[in-house]
Amino acid sequence: MSDQHTSSVNRRILAIDDESHILTLFRDILAPADMPAHLKQASAEETPRGYEVTLCDHGQKAFHAVKEALEHEAPYAMAFIDINMPDWDGLETAKLIRELDPHIYIVIVTGGQDSRMDELSPDIKRNLVLFRKPFSVDEILQLANNFTASWQRDLELRERTVELKKEIALRREAENKLKYRLKIEAAESRVSQLLSAQHAADLREVLKVITMALDTDRGILFQFHDDANQMDATFEYCAMGVQPMKQDWQEIETIDYPWWMARLADNDEIVITRRERLPATAGPEETAMAAGGLQSLLGVPITDRGNQLMGWMAVASGDQREEWLNDDKKAMRKVAELIAGYWDRLQLEQALIAAESMREDAD
User: Fold this and answer.
1) What backbone phi and psi angles, to 5 degrees, belong to 129?
2) What confidence tens digit (pLDDT) does each residue in 48-98 have?
3) CB 235 within 8 A of CB 203
4) How many CB atoms lie within 10 A of CB 147?
């Protein structure tokens, strides 16, 4: 909507009647006295009273005037429409104009009681009044003043409503982001507790925590062996109703999945929002995902202190994902780091046990 409509009252008015002397009367009341009286073209002038009046001698002309006004974002606030006109009568004209512009105020001008008003639907009757001839200058001016002011208040209310809805949506989005972030932070804290315990950690429970936090339905942990030439799925969590895949991912040759491995080797995330969008070079990966009914996947490498690949972990879902958020990637990286630290600790403990055993044997 242009600034014209929000900074001042909309004074644009239509007068529609097939009798020229009636239109002349509307013109003399609402428009300057020197406005041309001919009605061959719809006309509009700024008036000393502050109105801008368009005169139309039939409904079709008025319909096109309303349509053009809307296209130029300069709608009419109200229309005076004679009920008895050839071709389109007043009710038909009002109906078609209101279908174009649901916000315009309409005054149906009639010479007496007219039962045809009952034919109008509630949507058409809204902001519509029946006005009987003869009418006075004061009555026309009062209707014009009241309805143009009401139109402006309606506009301001609609604009304010839109602003409030946007504000509510922004606040709701911020609240949802905060809730999601807090849920992820709680998951990271829980994973840290699980992996720092003195006893052996339940890595399946770790996968469950991060899988649920990221609103996915599967988590899977791979470990490399044979100098990263092979990998096994060692732990998996599946939501209820999801078919496990772990048994199908044993002694996998990593060379068979070059697209995944290239990203892991570069310490990048594997980010898939929709399986069909994988590049042509990821054919084996697409086939593997299709076999497991997976559409989306987020994977991160797990590296030791020397940045050597130890494995990788992924969360995946049978549904497409609009996007993977930075919070999702950071959480996965954090969990991968904690798992790497846990594996390092296990190796150190095993090395310590082996050293003590050797010393005991030597004694």
Assistant:
1) -130, 155
2) 456 899 999 999 999 999 999 999 999 999 999 998 898 898 889 999 999
3) yes
4) 21
Tell me the CA distances in angstroms from 189 to 21, 334, 340, one per residue in order.
83, 10, 16
The answer to whether 309 touches 228, Cβ cutoff 8 Å, is yes
Q: What is the pLDDT of residues 276-301, one digit of tens each?
A: 999 999 999 999 999 999 999 999 99
Question: Among candidates 301, 300, 275, 298, which has minimal Cα distance to 288?
Answer: 275
What angle is formed at CA 293 by the lines to CA 290 and CA 298, rounded to 5 degrees?
85
User: Of all helices (H) and strands (E), which one includes residue 4?
Assistant: helix 3-7
- The full set of domains in the chain, from first to last, is 3-160 (3.40.50.2300), 198-362 (3.30.450.40)
Burial, 107: exposed, middle or buried (Cβ in 10 Å; 0-12, 13-18, 19+)?
buried
Please give the C-alpha separations between residue 242 and each of 236, 238, 316, 340, in angstroms, as whole numbers.
Answer: 11, 6, 11, 27
